Structures are given as structure tokens and as C-alpha cells.
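Components:
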Amino acid sequence: MAASKDPRPCSIADTLALVGEKHSLLVLREVCLGNGRFDQLVRNIGAPRDILATRLRRLVDAGILVKQPYSERPQRFEYRPTQAGLELEPVLMTLMAWGDRHLRGDGDRPMVLEHSCGQALAPVVTCRACGDEVRHEDLTARPQAPGWTVTGPTAA
Amino acid sequence: MAASKDPRPCSIADTLALVGEKHSLLVLREVCLGNGRFDQLVRNIGAPRDILATRLRRLVDAGILVKQPYSERPQRFEYRPTQAGLELEPVLMTLMAWGDRHLRGDGDRPMVLEHSCGQALAPVVTCRACGDEVRHEDLTARPQAPGWTVTGPTAA
DNA sequence: TACCGTGAGTTCGGATTTCCTACTCACCGG
DNA sequence: CCGGTGAGTAGGAAATCCGAACTCACGGTA
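Structure:
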């Protein structure tokens, strides 16, 4: 059997089709950090300039970034996150937390996010409805399209 | 200036180096859903078999998945998430929530995750220390390595 | 026994992407 | 006039990805 031509319909896949290409999420990281200029992005991300240009176009088209002039004469631009872009920050936070936890010995975190409460941020995903921390065992997947089953009873 | 050879040290980048290749997070999605067999993965993800084989090896090496036999004679395997793999689920949840919100008109969500509280899951990222929902403006980035500044005052 | 089907991959050549280096173009400051 | 900066584009080599076909071990069935 070949790779199916119509895989499971899924918002994860759709989102990754927009921001899952190499470097895209790092662009978003820098832009959220306030480093939105082209050469800053090149330096801080380490991506070739041409891919960066391609990624930026795509992210702007998708409404995740906007390209704003910060100086006329000479024309200079800066990329900034839109509201939709900012709403992707939780993805970055959870990725960073995972990397800090699993890829590094403690004490060598390359960056700490400080929350307004004064503590270093440890992000926790909770349920909007009940407020509890979400754990794998507490989830049941309900595919809405026919034919797309899920095998595990405690599926997520 | 060329693409810098030493970009910003960052756990987001490190994590993406492991799970950011094409299809990797979809593998994790299926495995978390309980669909851990090779041909299920091929069908549900829509990736070529050889790439899937490569991704699976990499994810197993990284300790995100384990390859477990579910039948001797004939030998048959199933991939399952490790604890570390399960800890990546928040990334999937936030990606899915974003896609549902921004890429689809309401009412056509391809999958709903039901939380044990009985409601459809709407994931919210909160601060472990104070419990509040984390918002962009409440974060301050503190790079730990020298030279890696952040320009915005309200950087995240 | 012969044959077909399934699970779990591997192999192959070709199509895409990415990468790297260099180049452009517009402007500014001295 | 000269060098530097910001924001890219151009071109070819290198790495990845893709689709289809092939393997191999087994199990069922007729």
C-alpha cells in the first residue's frame, strides 16, 4: 500500500503546513522577542537569507506576521506578530519547556521567560472549562469525520 | 552578511531539531491516539514509507517513542509514546487549537478532544507558579547567554 | 502444497527543497 | 567619494522528499 493520498483531516496537520517548515517557528520566536528585522533574523536563526525571505512572505500571507515600515527614506521594515501570530506563542512556550526539561542538564537553560508574577515561567496546559491541568489519560479523542477511528480507549 | 553559523542558543530550536522535521509531529499525534502500527501511520499521515521509517528510528533514538512487539510469530511491532513523548502532547494540543480557531470556520473541527470534566477541551497555558493564564505582555525574556539580547521591552 | 494477503519495512530514480556564496540596489555618514 | 548597512535576489551544489516497486516472513485457505 502506498502513502494514502487523503490522510486524516486534522488541524495539527493544517497548522504545521503553515508554520511547520524549517525555520518558520524560529522566525516567530524572534519576532515575538521583538527582533523583527531581516538581518537580525538571519543572524539569530542561522537560516539562509533566501529561505528566510520565502518564510516571511508565507507567514505574512497567512496573517501571522505583518511587515511594517519603521523608517521611510531609507525604507526599512520590521516584521511583527499579528494577533494570530501571538496566539501561536503557547506552542513556542511548550516546545521550549520540553527542550529545557529533556535536552539539557539543569542549570543551562539558554533563556528564561519571567512571568509578571515574578517567577520563571513553567507553562502548564489546563482545561478552559474546569481549570484542571490536562493529562493524557483524561482525554478522549472524538473524530468528527467518518472512518477516522482511534484505537486506544484512553486515546488523545 | 551570511547566515550566522552560531545562531541563538535555544531550546525551541533544539526541540524542533528532533521533532520539527516533516511528519514527525504527526507521527506523535497518531501514536498518542493509539494508532502505532506502521501501516496505520502510513495511511493516517500520508507520508512515504521510507520517510516514516526514518522518522520512527529518530524518534525512538530520541526516547520519544518505543517500539514494542505486540505479537511474536509473526513478529509485529507497535510504536508507543514514552513519558517524554507524552510530554510533547501540549504542543499538539496548542497547534490543534490554533488551527481550529484560525484555519476553519466554526463547526467543522475534524476532531474534538473531550476532557474528563465532560467538556470539549480548550487548552489554556497557565503559569505553574501563580496559576494565571499566560499572556504575551506578561512575559519578559531573560537570555542566559551573553550577547543574545532581546530588543522589545515586553519581549517574550 | 500452492497461492494470496498482511505487516513492516528497504531500494530505487527522479522531483523538490535547502543551503551557501555572491551579487544587487538604495541609501546614509564622513 | 568610499565604505557600511538593510533588505533582499541569483545560481548552482547538496540534501531531502516522494512514489512505486521490491523484499521477507509469516498465516490462512483450498
